Amino acid sequence: MPVSIADTTDADLLVNDSSTMPAILTDTSDADLPVKDSSTVSPIITDAPDADLPVKNFSTTPAITTDTSNTDQPIKESNIDVLIIGAGPAGYMAAIWFARLGINARIIDKRGTKIFTGQADGLQPRALEVFNSFGFAHRPLKEASVGFESCYYEPDANGHIHKVARKVEGVVGISRFNGSVIHQGRIEQWFTDAIDEFSNNTLQVERPLLPESLVVDESKIHDQSAYPITVTVKKLSDDDSVPDQFGHKLENGLYRQFAGDQEREFATPPESREIIHAKYVLGTDGAHSWVRKQLGIVPEGESTDYIWGVLDIVPITNLPDIRKRCAIHSVSDGSIMIIPREGDLVRFYIQLKETAREPEDGSPPGTKARVDRSKITPELILERARKILHPYTLDVAETQWFTGYQIGQRVAPKFEKWERVFIAGDACHTHSPKAGQGMNISMMDTFNLAWKIAHVVQGKASPAILSTYEDERRQVAKDLIDYDFKLSRLFSGKPGTGDGTISTDEFRDFIDKGSAFTTGCTVDYGASALVSKPPREDSNIKYASPLATELFIGMRFPDSRLVMQCDGRPWFIHDKMPSDGRWRLIDFSGDIKSSPTLAAQLVAVGHYFSSPESFIAKYTPADERVDSVIELILVHASDANNVEWDDFPLAFRSRDSRRVMDYWKIYGDMESLHGGTGDAYEKLGIKRDVGALVVVRPDGYVSMVTTPDMRGINEVGSFFDGFLIPATR
Amino acid sequence: MPVSIADTTDADLLVNDSSTMPAILTDTSDADLPVKDSSTVSPIITDAPDADLPVKNFSTTPAITTDTSNTDQPIKESNIDVLIIGAGPAGYMAAIWFARLGINARIIDKRGTKIFTGQADGLQPRALEVFNSFGFAHRPLKEASVGFESCYYEPDANGHIHKVARKVEGVVGISRFNGSVIHQGRIEQWFTDAIDEFSNNTLQVERPLLPESLVVDESKIHDQSAYPITVTVKKLSDDDSVPDQFGHKLENGLYRQFAGDQEREFATPPESREIIHAKYVLGTDGAHSWVRKQLGIVPEGESTDYIWGVLDIVPITNLPDIRKRCAIHSVSDGSIMIIPREGDLVRFYIQLKETAREPEDGSPPGTKARVDRSKITPELILERARKILHPYTLDVAETQWFTGYQIGQRVAPKFEKWERVFIAGDACHTHSPKAGQGMNISMMDTFNLAWKIAHVVQGKASPAILSTYEDERRQVAKDLIDYDFKLSRLFSGKPGTGDGTISTDEFRDFIDKGSAFTTGCTVDYGASALVSKPPREDSNIKYASPLATELFIGMRFPDSRLVMQCDGRPWFIHDKMPSDGRWRLIDFSGDIKSSPTLAAQLVAVGHYFSSPESFIAKYTPADERVDSVIELILVHASDANNVEWDDFPLAFRSRDSRRVMDYWKIYGDMESLHGGTGDAYEKLGIKRDVGALVVVRPDGYVSMVTTPDMRGINEVGSFFDGFLIPATR
Prior knowledge:
homodimer; 729 residues; alpha+beta; eight-stranded mixed sheet; 13 helices; oxidoreductase (chains A, B); FAD-bd (chains A, B); oxidoreductase activity, acting on paired donors, with incorporation or reduction of molecular oxygen, NAD(P)H as one donor, and incorporation of one atom of oxygen (chains A, B)
């Protein structure tokens, strides 16, 4: 029996905290309904009220509250640079940047424990590249299920599903990594381990801490030395920091409410309160973001009628492709998406109903009905899955987790206020989980933002760069919602040729065309102070300089294999571009051994950078290494047998006051004695007799491309002059 | 000024503990001389008396001592399966096997601390493969210096050195790993972390614990339930567990003696004594092995006249290839080997004298003189290096460690006694460090031995398999000594064409030919109960079956890239053959979709293994997974578009009582949609229309190759019958 649909009167009771489950299991925030069964409470996932819906038990708090005095307890008070509210993947990604860069940051979460099962599970190649840039990509490679193939099943003439296509998963060659799947708890553990290492255990999630109020002193927002934001937080008791989950014995994603919400009565008084003065606040607190509510930002968009269940099970089945990603359309029982998981687990996304019922509560006609998620059980989802999979069989050896959701798509109209308080992740965008994008795009939001905040906090850059966050990431969110809207319709639609049906050919074609998008590697940031290219009308048009025709400005610098000049070791260049806060200026000098012009250019460039007048010297504090703000890298295109380490200007080799050479900045796009290299110029569209000068941002995106001569150097200098602040020397 | 050479009368005072520095910095045990300067004692490396030389301050203990009662303290007593004495790389490698396999083992060391600088540093590709099989090969990939090129410098007509050749380092394609260099302390840390993980922190080095006596009850050595070996150990005070080092401020490898030796007076009484009853004892206690002395085994061989110094420095030099491995012969100042290390470090091996002086102590003519190592200083070594490197310059930004040694080569005639007490590593073989083999071959000794002991302790196999240890590893040691003998002569010799000179052409040719040997990947074990091939006359002749002409029996199963049938993921097959104690039976079934014969064979084989009468069932305990002793793997050669998961017999797919399929045993040697696969049959010399059945040992070496049909299965059954013990079911 399909799930029943109930009214919307108790919508506030059934919400998800998407900070713990960004996107891939995000209920899009308006599907939450009354509770019937509350016999079991499973203490895993926290919850937050939905700021976007009318609520019954507590008022919609105005954007800024100031009351921090309703307790008799002594109040601790402290200043920090950044406060991160919400320890989901987006929060962790911000934290790892701050840990890596030594920023005085804290991260709090109102949940008492980490998550252990279920939730988001999809990691796109770009996310894995970013993990690699923080040094832990080997962990998904070892632990996760990695996608290499996908299969499509559709009805045959008898209405039985059968395999119609076997296709490559992802895009061959776009990244060293393939999309991988593992439960969110492991991913958060990798972050935790890396953050511990970078911060020497000083930056750790503080929990359960609930923010109570956020006040901004607008008179101070232009003063970089001030702490204009005041957040009061209270420490919850353990009892109040567990979520209130539906009455299933299994872990699941169906929650009633979280006792630890801001306006709730607490079973026990908070243990203590604290006042935190911060320069910046990041709200990575999920689809029902409290921070977003404080800013008065209301997401725009709406829900669909498509209702889906999710099962994480160890299946017993004769479907031969159960360990591949499968998209299955049945004639009339709905669709399934199969995502193999780590170990023996498989995640099933199972369509439960084609449309929700009309609401029965007297809502105006056209109001979308909500699923009564309390009625969703694993048995019910499994029963539906069996119908869709027929004639293949499905039994379950073990169920680890389940949930249900109604697809909706929303984007926040603003991602920040005052360029001081930012929201990211599910707080900014919610959508269906099926493209496997949610957690990824949430992490990439803060990957985009946190280094910029760090730059400003460290006095390296003007606060003006912070406006690029919303410009860059809101476009990505809109693209995602657009993609998800089309995908959801095609996936949830009934296959056929008549009215109200969808074409499976169109579906497969859409997936094919969208596979580059879903790798995360095609994100293309628009023109700004940080991205030097012509403004564009259409965000889908990529821009490359004629100097590097395959190196698109605003997109991530692609990986290639280069040979370290000093020792002949081949490297994936990404491995030498860690996320350490540095800008990179890459001089593709061309074949300096064949062209006297290029050789002379390189000598001039080297001479410039050896001078104390260079812009690198200007932006680098006197007590720091000369490569600490901008790392100068050389990639030549001369033959390995024809070029020696000391053929290059000292600016690329020597930057240590001890006279020890720096051997690690010069690469050749040349054949290694062990092979497998020598095609980087070609892949980037750079001519060996011309070369190019490339600026790469600390997050790995291409800022500009120009000529590898003094004219180009001057252009790069002007580019940096646009936002970097000269160091006091 | 070259180092002075003194007499041999105090030879006992200047010894190395090669358990802490196997091979690459091993003094070969007879070069130890009197001490003049003792102002500074550096508490890093321990030491042990040399059992092989006449000693002055204490007697040469007879093989077995029984006195365990010379203390009033209460004596703890316990039974364990295996006691490892000596926590250097060989000891750690044994420990990781026992941790991985859940064997009740302990590892003790008399040193109070780990090492932090210097010592051995070379990791050959095979060692990295083994690290990979224990799950930590990513650590050297991240941390170590990896060798890809080497350069040769020789005198020009003016007597100035200049580069004469640039060559590939190692052998292209022989392994996924290249030879890597990092200091021994890091390697021991990786072991420690992995052992902690495998053993859940229960197997940890106990230190400082000094063994005092070893008694074997010969009446019990054939009783597998007995604990025939009794070892008394005493806990040292911290003061007594530090080494007595020469009077340099720097860490170095020049020791006088270790206060904590068995027959010494202790500054403080031992904290406690303990009696350990063990089934097996491993002596991995270095070149001056106490265990070896207890067994009465005396190494055979002798020292040469070649005297070398070692410097670990951060160099300042204009030698352009300083970050490549360089072999440099000067006209008359000796030779240098340059080994780039992790970070900015470089290790220099520098020839100090061409010949040692005649001894001045009245020794018989022909007695080799010893270096007075107390006279060796970093300044002296550097001075010599500068002469050799001229006209290139060499300055030092930082010296981290140094030592000096005289080359010698020795092998123990026996590696065990009663098949109960074993020695391994430097206790068995010592030689020069220059081939970078010592630590590797030491680790590979216990990698060969420990799983066999585990098999016997677990009741899986007959104790008869233990004799293969000495057979297999002593041959390797002899091959190494032979190689080292020739290399030392060519490297230490004066280049030229006249009498008493060596040909540098011959030197380079020797290195070229030996590069496969130094990868560690060409070790070839002889015929035995564990290696099914014809006996051979010459250990250099490899043997392959006509069924798999490039798969040599007795050698390690080479890596290749296969595609997992169930999900299309390409795998390096080594990544799916971890060191977990299991035998592997790999059915290269051929192209079953093109050959009805092969298909029928596979059905028959599957039928056999689905039966409770199969030898896999016979050797597997009823309460364990069916793949816990012998893992059955299928590698077909059919086209990916032509073959489905359920085309294969259930024996290869189903082995779980819950009816969950085992998806992880079937591979195709087929093109992955992402490319890069499909050549494994060809590389192994297996015909796609014939196939082969391959048995691989738990340590990854090929035991046998036969036909992939019931005749072959019966042969494999007989092979296992030769040493496996049927499980009680």
